[in-house]
């Protein structure tokens, strides 16, 4: 155990001290914060300023949290100037023929609709007709958080893909570094193969986890700072915790695969090639996860969220994109745990037998069947 | 005592690498392991270090079969050198010390001592990849020595070193041997083996063809008489045992058997005897004889 922790410690220290670690982390944080804030920056405004000349404020009911600020102008000329200068989004000019709404260019369609509806309402009420607003009620699933959920799911696909692909890649590079330089021969006189491999997977997993936690914190921080967090669905803490657990499972599985495959070759140039089956699987998982973010309740997403290793990416995305029963998540998790255990045993066998056989690429068949 | 008994190893279906290798190294003994390329030196050492499994035979240390815990107290320098290229010198040596079970403080102390002893003081903070080949070799040796091992197994430790580095390394190894550590090393530099080693093992095609102290090996070859006679008539040595060779334009008689007094008498009669003496065969000659 001690040997494994020493190996893990070295891996963490080696990675965390590189410039690449900080640069990569900084780039990811900027990216995530950028994406989080993007709807705020590029989406339509949720507050308007309306100028008033000879007219009343209207009881405007916008969608969501739209706010309207009213400013009264003394005459039409100043109101016109304010519109053209961009001080107000529109100006309502009262007159005998009715109310004209002035804007610089065509009026923002949402604003136009809101004003029109509010004005109609006001006229009807003024005529003495009592109106009651429609009361809307969903009798199906609660879809209030659908949009936020699907946005979060897309971000999650991005984050998980970067980390679940990137971190096992570091494991593969490390395995080949030790095999290619034959340092593994010296290491094996003081640590056992499972200690060396376990320590490497553990250490790099911690590095990956640091990345994940920092990125999640940055994303959540940005959401709270920008006010997006008010749209968070209930059970957000559980969703975030689930993401961390699923990352650990997915990483453990793919790290084991990466280590086994990488132990077959002796040169860094061969790593990409030998890892092809794994990267293909990852891309497939990525594709399905991407789809699941959009269509979380589809049959494909539901099935894929049970099948390891796809489930490690699809289930957290599905659970984020739509409310998913706990038993489904737990069942899928249990299947994934079994898959991880089986893969770790298998990979350990391959690694132990292949890692000392330097030179030409070792065939998987040669190390699996024999002895 | 480290006892290697009847090791046999076959790679694949056809390639027999070891075919009954046995020898023993006592405490404080420096054992030179020599043999042609591919004779089985590296395979033997890898089996001793547990990097390779033997098909048959065993390795015993202090009378009982060698296990992982005891092997952790061994120091090993493989034929293919391996270090973390991007790790700094002091850190690297210390890390291996920790892996071999030293405490953090103990590992740092041991690393510092070796760094000073091996003349790496100015390079402690450098990454290994920035070092010259000779200095990398020193770090490699430090990695093998950092935990003050009970046994040293070094595969070609002298290859690629300049003469001064060879002397420095030889001194370090002798010092460890004097401390009671059995030292096994392989080398193609036979003069060096002859100078340093208490005993020598010669391996050829997976079999030990000779082993013992250098003196024992010599006596097995037999002593050799070297006679140089100036201004002798050609054919003076006809009828005498041994070969007549020409060295630097002069005839030299090399005899490995026969009555030395009889040869001396014949030489005196043939001319002026410039040289008459018993000569020790060099390890190179013993090696050629044993492997042939």
TrEMBL record, chain A:
Its main location: membrane. It is found in: Cell membrane. The chain crosses the membrane at residues 21-42, 152-176, 197-224, 236-262, 274-293, 329-351. Keywords: Cell membrane, Membrane, Transmembrane, Transmembrane helix. InterPro entries: ABC-2_transporter_component, ABC2_TM. GO terms for cellular component: plasma membrane. This is ABC transporter permease. It is a multi-pass membrane protein. GO terms for molecular function: ABC-type transporter activity. It comes from Sphaerimonospora thailandensis. Residues 21-347 form the ABC-2 type transporter transmembrane domain.
UniProtKB/TrEMBL annotation, chain B:
Gene3D superfamilies: P-loop containing nucleotide triphosphate hydrolases. Coiled coil: none annotated. It is a peripheral membrane protein. Signal peptide: none annotated. InterPro entries: AAA+_ATPase (IPR003593), ABC_transporter-like_ATP-bd (IPR003439), ABC_transporter-like_CS (IPR017871), ABC_transporter_ATP-binding (IPR050763), DrrA1/2-like_C (IPR025302), P-loop_NTPase (IPR027417). GO terms for cellular component: plasma membrane. Pfam families: ABC_tran (PF00005), DrrA1-3_C (PF13732). Keywords: Antibiotic resistance, ATP-binding, Nucleotide-binding, Transport. GO terms for molecular function: ATP binding; ATP hydrolysis activity. The keyword DNA repair does not apply. Belongs to the ABC transporter superfamily. PANTHER family: ABC TRANSPORTER ATP-BINDING PROTEIN (PTHR42711), ABC TRANSPORTER ATP-BINDING PROTEIN NATA (PTHR42711:SF5). This is ABC transporter ATP-binding protein. It comes from Sphaerimonospora thailandensis.
